[in-house]
Amino acid sequence: MTEEAYRLITPDGNELELPVHKGTTGPDVVDIGKLYKTQGVFTYDPGFVATGSCASDITFIDGEKGILMYRGYPVEQLAANSNFIEVCYLLLNGELPTASELEEFDTTIRTHTMLNEGMLNFFKGFRYNAHPMAMLSAVVGSMSAYYHDTTDVHNPEHRDIFAHRIVAKLPTIAAAAYKLSTGQPFMYPKNELNYTENFLQMMFSVPAEPYEIDPIQAEALDLLFILHADHEQNCSTSTVRMAGSSGANPYSAIAAGISALWGPAHGGANEAVLRMLDEIGDVSQIDKFLAKAKDKDDPFRLMGFGHRVYKNFDPRATIIREMAHKVLNSLPNNNETPMFELALRLEELALKDDYFIEKNLYPNVDFYSGIIYKALGIPTSMFTVMFALGRSVGWVSHWREMISDPNQKIARPRQLYVGAAERDYVPLEKR
To answer: Domain spanning 5-62: which CATH class is it, in words?
Structure first.
């Protein structure tokens, strides 16, 4: 905090000073903590879109300039030079690891991917057609019943164990949810494989025959996980912080974040991209649907274009675009796949259309990630699960930061009450 302050003139003509807090970069924040105590009023900010809910040193976003940084490192540099496990270490610990630290962390994650066998039996209680996100949320929430020995949120060692378990075991849980929908047996993790290779084999291998991992597919998933790893105080991350602020066991906080991510306005956006492509149906229909998207009276929306945070371009989309094309080019008969042909043509036309250029409706990370997941053979119902796998380390990092903050308080937003004023109860016979 500096000596700077905003001066607020109250209705009675008095002056109130609101201190200013300065961060490393980005907008300053005005401290309104004493506004209610001194003036008896709350601020009004639906969705908390203009409210700094916490102080954090994990992720920085500048939507106007298209900047995304993890712990100060531009995501472009991490995407080009790092891998997801190293990014996990960075987000959890604040610094890039040394070679020995990375090896130790990688070994810890590789050797904790198995689930308690009772958790696999838990899956048998779900219907075969249950949505994978419903299963993911439920099973993660149940982890405290299997790993209740390390749920003391005030114990730093317990917090570390929890963090490692979430990062290590979530791919195993996600793959099991997929296997249930296919009727295939659950596949156990293999410690000799890296993070994304292990996930692919748990998803697509079967006991009856060997499974060969495609290195381009593993590379693409690793990149997507990096780009999804964190995104500041978004809906699901804020949900994790809010749930965790009560002191609830951390697994329930992560389960709450998963549930929030499921919403179509958040993590479900890449599912919406594929549904949109299905609706368009064919390249010949693109012009028709572009016209519908431009018509303000038409409810049709071009999904996967533009972003509520990034006003000019999404830095993640710039990175993933090249990988999307790399994956598609590696597929046999790619040019004969109508959906991919449609997606690439839609991308081409939207990038050239003056209307979309003027409104900054560029393809975003959801557009390209949906295409990649589809190309890898991942069903649409699993898209948001894939998002959760990458975002899990961000959730854990924010939870750890929140729970270890000495100034942390239970979340308690206020409201503008617009209901009935005080009134007397009327007996039933008189109504």
So the answer is: mainly beta
Domain with CATH 1.10.230.10 in the chain: 269-375
Residues of the chain with pLDDT under 50: 1, 336
Q: Which of 106, 230, 314, 366 is catalytic?
A: 366
Catalytic (active site) residue 307: yes
Classify domain 269-375 by CATH number: 1.10.230.10
Give catalytic status of residue 266 as yes or no.
Answer: yes
CATH 2.20.28.60 in the chain: give the residue spans: 5-62
Catalytic residue among 222, 307, 314, 398: 307
CATH T-level assignment (fold) for domain 73-263+392-403: Citrate Synthase; domain 1 (1.10.580)
> What is the model's pLDDT at position 183?
92
Are residues 140 and 173 in contact, defined by beta-carbon separation less than 8 angstroms?
yes
* Active-site hit among 214, 266, 325, 353: 266
List, by residue range, all CATH 1.10.580.10 domains of the chain. 73-263+392-403
Per the annotation, the verdict on 57 as an active-site residue is no
pLDDT in tens, 208-251: 999 999 999 999 999 999 999 999 999 999 999 999 999 999 99
Q: Could you read off the pLDDT of 308-358 as tens digits, one per residue?
A: 777 776 788 878 888 988 898 888 765 546 777 888 888 888 778 888 888
Q: What is the pTM of this model?
A: 0.90
